[in-house]
Structure formats: structure tokens, C-alpha cells
Amino acid sequence: MTTDDTPxxDTPxxDxxxxxxLDRVRREIDDEVRHRRAAGDFPPSYERRLDELFSRFxxxxxxxxxxxxxxxxxxxxxxxxIDVPVGSRRQPRGLVKWSLWxxxxxxVNYVVTQLNHFAASSMRVxxxxxERLSDxxxxxxxxxxxxxxxxxxxxxxxxxxPFAEAVxxxxxxxxxxxGRVLHAECGDGALLVALGRxxxxxxxxxxxxxxxxxxxxxxxxxxxxxxLGHLGSVADEALAGLVLSACVDRLSLTERRRALxxxxxxxxxxxxxxxxxxxxxxxxxxxxxxAADLAPGRPLHAETWVHLVGQAGFADARTQxxxxxxxxxxxxxxxARGTGDSAGxxxxxxxxx
Length: 353
Hints:
CATH topology of the largest domain: Rossmann fold
Number of helices: 11
Helix content: 40-55%
Distance between the termini: 62 Å
Number of strands: 8
Number of domains: 2
Structural class: alpha/beta
Strand order of the largest sheet: 3-2-1-4-5-7-6-8
CATH superfamily of the largest domain: Vaccinia Virus protein VP39
Oligomer: single chain
């Protein structure tokens, strides 16, 4: 790409050429990023640290987002001046401008006065909103736990390997749909390997831990993404199976309910949901006192997950217990959401050992 390729000119044709040039540059950048990712130059943990640094040092990542300063600037500009320039280098033209201004001054003055009143009222409303939002941000900031002191702030979840056989068996059961299976968060991709050996089309998402770097280096389809954000971007009923692990131990109760609601929307009828969690007592030992105290949420018991998946529209919940961990598997009901049988699903849960 040379400087000779750069378009010039303010004509419509020049604008079209400029847009085409910028689109070509964007495509080249995207292709280069994909190539570097495939080559392992941008491991997920490295990209996560870049995002954290970008959010920390850019103005949009500041606590007040410079909104108050921008509001003050808008306040100074929210005034319409009625005194128009009537001067001219040529005396006859100045006289004409002055005559026109005198003829229209009463009308312009009336309109400008109304506009100034409206602008003043609007700015007053914006200042009130700024004050209220500042109060909300301050209160929410007090509720947000401080970040952990180490770079690797994500506590590893339960090892999914002991439950791989049960997960494969549930995904291959009679009546289960055929399609892609998502593992979130996948960590080092051990479960993806087991699913691949069974002939199941699976991929994973991970927020960018060091374990996911090893999965990418091993050639697994692992994408750096937020679990809830990725689920929100998946088409409805596009997944045959969904495995949730690691993140389920630290999400807040509201986020857990949202994850289950998204799972119900994204799984095809009859699709399989698997929740692999850590026993609450074991999690505190593994996480350590700092991570345990500052985590936004704590692990739930297997019985609680059975209750929640039943409320979210899943049936035939089964629990398999392991060493300091458990796996809850359930099927999405083929019937529409909101049927009256969801309340009793937890009562019929089966526990396997």
C-alpha cells in the first residue's frame, strides 16, 4: 500500500473513492490480525491485558468520562446571538445588510429569544441528569468489588475432565439435536478435545486466561470473548449443546440467571445444558482468601443449580458428583417457554455418583 493509492478531491467521486480506500485499509488490518492470531502472536491473555490497559488509560475509561467538562462546553455554546455582522468592505453592501437587518430584527429577535429559552431549559435538565447519574455512579462504585492485585485474576474452575464421558453420553443421547456445542469458559480446552474425539463439533470461548493460550497453541477453536456477551451474539436455537464452567463459580446471582435465560434462548429444542461447578467449600480453598473475598459471586450447590435450570425452562436435570466438583445436565424442553411444568422440574432431579 503506497501513498499513490490515497484518493484526493472533495467531489462525490472523490468521497466514494475515499470510502473504498478506507474499506480496503480496514480489510487489510482485519486480515493481518487474523493472520497474527492464527500464528499465535496474539494469545488470548495478551489481548485481554491490552483491553485492560486501553480501558485504564483512555479518556473513555476515566471515572467521570469527561462528561461534566463536555457539558460545561455545551452550556457556553447554548446561546444564540441576535447581533449579526452587518459590516462590509464595500460601503453600499454594508448599508444593504444593515437595512435588511433593521427590517427583520423584530422577527429574528423573537425567534432567537425562544431558542435561547429552550436551550437554557435543556441545559438545566442535562445538568440535573448529570448530578443524578454522578450519584448513581458513586453508589454503584461502592458496590463494585476492587480488582485483585495480580494480573491473572480469574480463578480456575472445576476440572471438566472427570465429567467428559457423562457430557458426551448426554449429547449423543437419543433425541438430542445435532449441531455445534459451545464450552464457556473452556480453559485449556481439555473438554473440547474429548468432544472432538467423540465426533462432536465443539468450540470454546474464554476471557483470555493463560490456560486458553495453551488451547489456541494446540489448534483448538477457542475465541477470546466474554461468556454472556458471546451468548448474546449467538443466533437463537443455534446450539445443540452448551457447557458452562469456571464462570459459574464467580458470577453474581443476576448474571447466573441471565446466563440460563440466554442458554434457553440459544439452545435448539432438546438441546443439552451442562453446568460444571465447584463445591462451595472446595472453591474457597482453591481460590484463596483474597479472591474469595473480592469475587462478585460465590459457587452454588448442585441442588441450587438444579432448581435454577428448572425455573429457566429445562427438564430431566441430573447431577453427577465428583471430587470437590459436580456436573448438572438438563435438556431444553421442546415445548414453548412459559409452560406450567417448569416449577416441578427440580423435584424430579436424579443424582448420579
